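HUMAN:
Sorry, I am quite new to this. Are you able to go through these amino acid letters and fold codes? The numbers rather puzzle me.
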Amino acid sequence: MRALIDFTGGPLEQKFDEGSQKLLKDFLNGRNLDEVVEWGTERSPESYVDQTNARGILTFISNTWHETLFPVNPVLDLFERLTVPKRLNLWIGDHGAPEGPGLTGLVPEVPFPGLAVPTREAYDWLDHHLLGVDNDVPNWPAVNSQSMFTYQTVANPGDTDRITVPATPVTAR
């Protein structure tokens, strides 16, 4: 959680209101966890599935197989309950790894080819559904999942290995 808070930049006190600061500090310190869970439940997409379906709100979900904040099984349960146009991408990695570079504007400089894909797919999906752009989105499966250990790397002495071939997607309709 500390890394996620730090990822947004700047001190906690400059990013969140007093109530959110208290809850985040409680979470980080393992105290008042019933209140933390109540706060999170109220903000959870799962709490609004019926309203999402009733209003026909398009839903694009990107998640990771090694997710430490939002485990895959509850996300799959949520996805199954949605009756609206929807898309689910499951990527290799942990929270924010696929989307982070795109959200921070680092897409052109990322050392891992393929990490720009989640951001590009989200834009293409939204362009099609919200702007009416004629693209390949109608042919996409509802679920796209990367398969572990299908990517290729090259050694990069003095630094982390670089992925040269992205993981193979496994698609399902």
Notes: The first strand starts at residue 59 and ends at 64. Confidence is low (pLDDT under 50) at residues 108-114. The chain has two domains: 1-43, 58-172.
